[in-house]
Amino acid sequence: MTPPKILLVEDNFITSDEIRDWLMRLGYTEVATAYSGAEAVRLAEEGQPDLILMDIHLGDGIDGIEAAERIQARRRVPVLYLTAYDSDSTLSRAKLTNTSAYLLKPVRERELRIAIELALEKHQAEQALQASEEKFRNIFEMALDMICIADIDTATFLQVNPAFTTILGYQEEELLQRPFLDFIHPDDVGPTIEIIEHDLKHGANVISFTNRYRCKDGTYRWLDWNSHPYPAKGITYAIAHDITERKQAEEVLHATNAAKDKLFSIIGHDLRNPMIGLSSGTEMLREHLQDADAFTRDLCRQMHASIEQVLQLLDDLLAWSRVEQGTFPYAPEPLDLASHVNAVRTFLHEMAAQKQITVTTAIAPGTAVLADPNMLNTILRNLLSNALKFTPQGGTVTINAHKHETMVAISVSDTGVGMSAEKVKRLFNIGEKGISTAGTAGERGTGLGLILCKEFVECHGGQIWAESEKGAGSTFTLTLSEGKNSESVKRT
């Protein structure tokens, strides 16, 4: 560590040499010596000392106090005065400089050592404090957020940073001259007073308290406050973030959600009910047209399939909406997996038969999962229908399950067209476009099936993922908690 540089100013050569020897013995090896005030000013400018030992009464020209004043005018440096006189007038003049201590001559070595150490430590502490204050001042002045110091007893600002004037539009004096409660929205004054009285005045930090402040143009800005009080001083330091745009976005989102809910209500009643009637009608029509020509029967079949597709879309939309709102009923219970898989196979039998696809299962008897029956059926139906959709004529779809610790892994594999790794990554993201494509027989999907599967699986605390390779089929796997294998297991 480099020893501090000391400038010794003493017009008595004998005293100067003696003190210099002491300093060298104490380890202060960088010592410059001046014998007059003018020389001291020059050497201080050239050598930039860390401490000055200054004799007050110098022989010619300026005295030690004036020399210290000139040096201090250029650079703050601690000064230890050496004097044989302690008159009030002399001490009063010396106090106006950066005085660290006064040492009365004759000086003793021990006193000198202690005085130098204390002066250097004090100066270092002052420099650190000054640097900290400058850093705080820079942050205070340049921050985009609003920063203030406030009196919590009088509810007034003591100091505000420029962001206050930028955001609210007032001059600093306008903010300091009135209680800050005058700027707060009438509906927020009560909660603000409660925060001051019950939290800040009792030393409790306040994190994320919001209220509205009136701007000079009469509008209001939403502010989110964090505050750190000092009750003993009756003040608090506070930072406010302008969240007006976020609040406005939340209002727009709330209105959008309300409109969405109304739309789904219309879908659920005004659209879905007529489609159910059409589906039933075309099903009856198919039964009455068994003896019709092939073209008519095929046309009727296509009509029924299209209506079923629309119904499926409406059901998926309604289910997704209820999941988003948190209103989809969730009642997990132990379920026999094989019976639910068989029920879905039966439901989709015609779809498989039309493409001559073989559907096989490999599920050990008694395999049970803890799941909501409606959600499980929706998951299985979507995964199996997707597999059938993308498997060509004469292909194979396999459903299997195996236990792993406390979970059951269920897989639906097909020998279909497969997909690229890039598409696999995007499968379960609702915001992705171009995910839903036509099946091998031109079948169309809703685009929401896999999204629902992911939502439902995660609702059960499980996971779902896909593995695929273009031209080599796909495998969708999900995990659910194992259900108790007992008489309580529910079968469809």
Automatic annotation (TrEMBL):
Catalytic activity: ATP + protein L-histidine = ADP + protein N-phospho-L-histidine
One MF annotation (Gene Ontology) recorded for this entry: phosphorelay sensor kinase activity
UniProt-listed Enzyme Commission number(s): 2.7.13.3
SUPFAM superfamilies: ATPase domain of HSP90 chaperone/DNA topoisomerase II/histidine kinase (SSF55874), CheY-like (SSF52172), Homodimeric domain of signal transducing histidine kinase (SSF47384), PYP-like sensor domain (PAS domain) (SSF55785)
One cellular-component annotation, GO: plasma membrane
Domain PAS: 132-203
Response regulatory domain residues: 5-120
Xref: Pfam families: HATPase_c, HisKA, PAS_3, Response_reg
Domain called Histidine kinase: residue spans: 266-484
Record keywords, A-Z: Kinase, Phosphoprotein, Transferase
Residues modified to 4-aspartylphosphate: D55
UniProt name for this protein: histidine kinase
